[in-house]
Amino acid sequence: MAKFKLDEIDHQILDMLIENTRVPFTDIAKKLLISAGTVHVRVKKMEDAGIIKGSSLTLDYKKLGYSFIAYVGVFLQNTSKTAFVLERIAEIPYVTVAHVTTGKFNIFCKIRARNTEHAKDVIFMLDDIESVYRTETMISLEESINDKKRLMHSIFNDL
């Protein structure tokens, strides 16, 4: 497939959708002085090109009682067990992100928990997975930066 070329209108549409995925196309159209049909067509083209993949919802985990964040590095006995271990990790709902990595850890996970006691239970679940040699945990004191827009603007400037 040919590379999809984004223009400034596409950038502005994406900027508004990143801010709020539920913003009506009519609102985007009014702000950009274009028709809602144009917004719809452009979003559809970006979806078809794979630039936009679904939409997401941002939850306030603190209000839901899951404000505790920890990062867990997982050491494996053998890297050939990576797929097996990832399948077991995927069964733990409190592991929200897992990366296969190079360097110190074989797998690096982000967990969300209610408190330190709950986090300990989740970490023990990771430790108990067959082929996990050991884990190393870092507790997040605060999520200071979580900004998709800055990266998007850098990418647009590079294009």
TrEMBL record:
GO CC aspect terms: cytosol
SUPFAM superfamilies (alphabetical): Dimeric alpha+beta barrel, Winged helix' DNA-binding domain
Domain of life: Bacteria
Record keywords: DNA-binding, Transcription, Transcription regulation
All residue ranges annotated as the HTH asnC-type domain in the record: 6-67
Pfam families xrefs: AsnC_trans_reg (PF01037), HTH_24 (PF13412)
Matching PROSITE patterns: HTH_ASNC_2 (PS50956)
Molecular function terms from GO: sequence-specific DNA binding
InterPro entries assigned to the protein according to its UniProt record, in alphabetical order: ArsR-like_HTH, AsnC-type_HTH_dom, Dimeric_a/b-barrel, Tscrpt_reg_AsnC-like, Tscrpt_reg_AsnC/Lrp_C, WH-like_DNA-bd_sf, WH_DNA-bd_sf
GO BP: any one term: response to amino acid
Keyword Transcription annotated: yes
Protein's name in the database: Lrp/AsnC family transcriptional regulator, regulator for asnA, asnC and gidA
